[in-house]
Amino acid sequence: MGWLTVAFYFLTAILSLRKAILLHKNQTDFRFWSILALFLLLLGINKQLDIQSFFTEIGRVAARKQGWYQNRRSVQFYFVLIFGCFAFFIIACVWWVLRKKWKKYLIPLCGFLFLMAFIVIRAASFHHFDKFLNLKPFGARINWVLELGGIGILFYSTLEDFLEPKTNNDYV
What we know:
- The protein has helices at about 1-20, 25-50, 50-65, 70-100, 105-125, 125-135, 140-165.
- By secondary structure, it is mainly α.
């Protein structure tokens, strides 16, 4: 499933960049889709290289060497709190920039929110959150539903202009 997810990240990043280039005349569209393409590319690289596990291990080693490993839960709590606030700030900034055109971006914003929710929950990675992410209702892990669901929504939104029937006014 990991390789499929990485491929899906990269494909959706390419399609987002393609959409940015196609919509280059509208500065907001171009920026939105370009930033989204970069975001997806970075998430795909992270998924492939498992960078968060590397930093988790560095933190674990530092906590043991510095003698605060037994208090790691409070450090994790504050990390997740700060990370969650940062994610909320990013979402608020995106909303502020798109506030007048939010309906136009509703579908990709939903996909973005799915991915942000997945990232924040994954960053928490406390034992009970890991249990939640590994639940398998209907045979699909919640982890896959959030991550692949978010990417899937974004993938669809890169194609929606091509899937909708065009009227004569659209070509003028």
